[in-house]
Amino acid sequence: MRFRFMLALLLPFSAMAEEKEINLFNGKDLSGWTKADGKPVTTGWKVEEGLLHRASAGGDLLSDKEYGDFELTWEWKIAEAGNSGIKYRVQTYPGKGVLGFEYQMLDDAKHPDGKNGAIHQTGALYEFYPPAADKKLNPPGQWNTSKIILHGFHVEHWLNGSKVVDGDLSGDTYKAALAKSKFKDIANFGAAPKGRILLQDHGAEVWFKTIVLKPL
Question: What distance in Å separates the CA atoms of residue 19 and residue 21, rounded to the nearest whole number?
């Protein structure tokens, strides 16, 4: 009897935890996503057999909601010599466009960016922090699992079960990296405590299987 009573107490909390997870991609259509200008996505991106496929030019996809602190997990694969990424805390910067922090997704071996330093390779916080040298990256055409854990101004990037970036987004190390980056002249870049999620169209085929966000 005592066990049943405790179970009855715990079940609502378990359900609440499950409800907090948000499937940003429902496996059926592009509900919840728009183009950068807020218009519906009509070209380039397709949903095929439960996968989200950037098949041809269609522009970036942006979530229709903003998120602050979260754990974001997704499965992805990329074409040979491909380049893509997921951006977070995305905001519109007047005269500069739609920008945010980026989890880089790349064919490190065959895309030119792979030779431009580790801060441009898969798992990097693009332009800021390189991924761990011993990261486990599956080759083009094979699935990878990635995760971003964002809490306040601390971020972790994970790749295939291993943490590859552990960095801050406000301290001296970050400020030094910002001063050397392509974002150095953008006022208040990255200062917002929340923003939209962006799936990057960088001219290559990329596939997503799941995209799940858990607010923290």
Answer: 5
Can you give the CATH number for the domain in which 37 is found? 2.60.120.560
Task: Report d(CA 49, CA 81) in Å as an integer.
Answer: 24
Residue 131 lies in a domain: yes
Residue 9: inside a domain: no
CA distance 22 to 65: 11
Closest CA to 23 of 35, 33, 34, 11: 33
| Structural domain includes residue 204 | yes
In tens, the pLDDT along 5-63 reads 444 555 555 544 555 899 999 999 999 999 999 999 999 999 999 999 999 999 999 99
Q: Which domain holds residue 28?
A: 22-215
Structural domains of the chain, count: 1
Of 78, 13, 2, 24, which Cα lies nearest the Cα of 196? 24
Task: List pLDDT tens digits, range 63-77.
Answer: 999 999 999 999 999
